[in-house]
Specification:
The chain is mainly α. The chain contains 15 helices and no strands.
Length: 453
Amino acid sequence: MPPTPASHDPQTPRPPLRARILGIDIARGLALFGMMATHVLPRMDETGDLTAVALLQGRASALFAILAGFSIILSTRSALAHTGGRGWAAASAGLVIRGALIALIGFALGELPSGIAIILVNYGVLFVIAPLFLRLPTWLLGVSAWAWFLVTPQLSHAIRSSVDSGFADSGLTVPAFSNMHMADTWVGLFLTGYYPLLQWVGYILLGMWLARIDWSDLHRRITLLIAGGALTTLALSASALLMNMRGRWELDSLYGEESVTGVHTYVDRVIMLGAYGVTPADSPWWLVTAGPHSGTTFDLVQTAGVAMAVLALCLLLGPLLDRGPALVHAWLSRPGSMPLSMYTLHICLLALGEMTALRTVPWLDTQTEWFWVNVVAVIVAGLVWTGLVSSRGPLEAVLTAAVRAVQRSVLGDGLDPSGGQTPADDRSPPDCQNPPDGARVSGPRRPQPPPSA
């Protein structure tokens, strides 16, 4: 685990803010393109072997969620600088309005036939919940994050195993305006869906804790990298050990060892490709798997570890890349600076391909070609928008305006929610961050193969 925060000596030089933000934008860009790969490219080949894309499954979304927690701290620091209760009230109001608008965008995207499980509604709710944790001391944020990973998977299993199968499968509905009135939609958001909030709050807490730590020290960033790798290795190794000792035998005896695909059994598929956000609730031995999107403690810890390592690498590279030509990193950092807009563009492209004959064009009829069309579209859109219009994406700009208006009304007409900072100082990660690497929507939880995520 990374070191506890230390007080910063004001005489010690800190890396430029722009370089630190550049590192975060690069991390977001990596998560964005990783998500796009899992949406479009196959995770298993014809022989039943995993492709490289399978390594990204579940990990890109965890990185986005942790960066969301990171950004919650950065984007509220100006409002919280105001003394008294109004500072916290303004920061909280900003998070609530931001979360509500993100959720509305998610409901709208859910109406499109993209074939993707949209995560924006889940993210919106996480932002609405975040004010509950803003005042926690740094040490308690860290303890809460890791305790959340340990406790909530077992709690989820206990709740889901106590109800009938219909309730347990209620989370397969993608949130949309057409079903937002249904109880199953909200049960899915919090408990049984692709990105169950019961477990995912832990990612936000971890990101908030990491954001409170002073990463200007090179040794701390290296420690974060090592800690992330160690946690990932520990979680995967412990899961494999428990599965080999007893878990695999128990699950095979329950589900049988017949292949459901001609190559792998159902248990194989869940272990290799993951589940639909949570594992089946018919055996506690599912809790020892580390499969992508299984929502177990081992899954949460290993994905959090990967995200920590990636974030550390990006924070290490940020100052180096900031001193070089922008072209070296702009293709990644510019889309990463406006993730909500770029994610929305990606979903709209996928829906366009489903609704029209676009995918039948000879040079667009393979998954690889379609993936590169999405990548090029996102890169070009990010470069053109930031080069000609604004450093903030179009949707990010709308959310920023709404948040500042709400914060200004809470603080009073004479107080500036930015705390008098210059625009450069206020260039915290965009206000509506961290789109999801959603999962493909494909039928019932069993025995269909899990969606990409």
